[in-house]
Amino acid sequence: MGNQKENLTLKIKKDWCKGCGICVAFCPKQVLDLKDDKIEIVDIEKCIKCGLCELRCPDFAIFLGGNEDEEK
Could you tell me the pTM of the whole model? Predict the structure, then answer.
């Protein structure tokens, strides 16, 4: 039985993002950045799927999802 985190993918709902930068500040691997006051994934290969961005986002604009059919 594999690690459940392996199946998770970082997802962003840019329409929900207010550009506060909290997720950028909490990301331990500098995966995220703000561009034009919206969150952007800049280096997905560094993502360790810790979930801090999802946990700290006050707007629910970023999350770890497991289904490719989910809204991106």
Answer: 0.80
